[in-house]
Design brief:
This protein is α/β, with parallel strands linked by helices. It has helices at 8-20, 23-29, 34-48, 64-91, 104-107, 110-121, 134-142, 190-194, 207-219, 233-241, 297-309, and strands spanning 53-55, 60-62, 95-102, 124-131, 148-153, 162-177, 187-188, 198-200, 226-229, 247-250, 261-266, 283-291. Strands 3, 4, 5, 6, 7, 10, 11 and 12 form an 8-stranded mixed β-sheet that branches. It has a two-stranded antiparallel ribbon with strand order 1-2. It has a two-stranded parallel ribbon with strand order 8-9. The chain starts with 7 loop residues before the first helix and ends in an 8-residue tail after the last helix.
């Protein structure tokens, strides 16, 4: 048999009687006459199947059941009173949840500061962070498992079908074993760098950046010699330390200090015997991306927050 629900008005009457221990005073406190309050408590006891008050002509006292119920009802009423303000805060994006995926490169520098500052501005918005490469993020978007992502790509080549906000632009630098001869110079000649075995991420991880790096080799008439592929930038740097080859990495990876590995800029390349302007080295960009039809006020607030932080290290045009 389905029980009739007890409305908030009846619970307020229960609390008033429990605190006053007098039906008349409780009714006056509620701006009611006594009979409706007495009837409401009696109906509540019938619905619950327990006595909440011991009543005599001289006294009213809570039963053990009433004593156990009182703190729970007070909490219920407090939460009910807070609901309108919480609804308004949710609509304004001041409460809620943002499931944010990110690539490791943004985690070296900008993301920790963002998380700290955003929590200060919106302490009731939960940021759920998961490190994931771009291909994994796209799959998570398709399954509805994340609300936004921070993706690495070549400048202007963010994945289509998503809203995009560029948050960082970086140059690529070389990661070299500290004992490598090229580590002794401040700026590595590009021709020498292109002759070295390469440690790189698989193309599926960041297709546009993978193609840009390969394009650099092809423009010089060379084919890269792939020594090893690895997914995470930390792993790539560790493989460089192990002597497998050199790697092109975003400048932010320089925050990842690995004994035995140094980072060097490369010179721009112009083929011998030809007079032309040196071709610029490829750069990379990180964008905050999210579905265009996202209906998440907390996400909208996070996007505005990130936008206010500005573009980090914009590349020269």
């Amino acid at each position: 048999m389905k029980e009739n629900p007890i409305d908030l008005r009846a619970w307020r009457q229960f609390v008033a009687v429990a605190e006053e221990l007098h039906f008349g005073r409780a009714a006056a406190r509620l701006h009611l006459t006594q009979p409706p309050v007495t009837q409401a408590i009696a109906q509540m006891e019938r619905t619950l199947g327990v006595m909440l008050f011991d009543r005599t002509r001289r006294r009213v006292a809570l039963t053990p059941a009433g004593e156990a119920l009182l703190p729970e009802v007070r909490e219920l009423l407090a939460r009910a009173q807070a609901l309108p303000a919480r609804a308004r805060a949710a609509a304004a994006g001041e409460v809620g949840r943002v499931r944010l995926a990110f690539v490791s490169t943004i985690g070296f520098e900008r993301l920790p500061a963002w998380v700290r500052e955003f929590r200060l501005h919106c302490p009731q918005v939960a940021l759920e962070l998961v490190e994931a490469t771009g291909d994994v993020q796209l799959e998570a978007f398709s399954r509805g498992e994340i609300d936004a992502g921070l993706m690495l790509h070549s400048p202007g080549f963010a994945p289509p079908g998503l809203e995009r906000l560029a948050v960082a632009q970086e140059r690529l630098v070389l990661a070299l074993p500290a004992k490598h001869p090229l580590a002794r110079v401040e700026k590595v000649p590009l021709a020498a760098a292109l002759a070295e075995p390469l440690v790189i991420f698989p193309r599926r991880i960041v297709p546009s950046l993978h193609d840009a790096i390969f394009g650099l080799y092809h423009a010089a008439g060379r084919a890269p010699v792939i020594a090893q592929e690895a997914i995470q930038m930390q792993t790539i740097v560790n493989l460089v330390w192990g002597g497998l080859g050199i790697a092109w990495v975003p400048e932010s990876v320089m925050q990842f200090r690995r004994a035995g590995v140094v980072y060097r800029a490369a010179s721009e390349f112009a083929p011998a015997g030809r007079r032309r302007t040196a071709a610029p080295l490829p750069g990379c960009e990180t964008s905050l991306v999210w579905p265009s039809r996202a209906d998440n006020a907390a996400l909208a607030r996070f996007v505005r927050f990130v936008e206010d932080q500005g573009l980090s290290h914009p590349l020269a045009q």
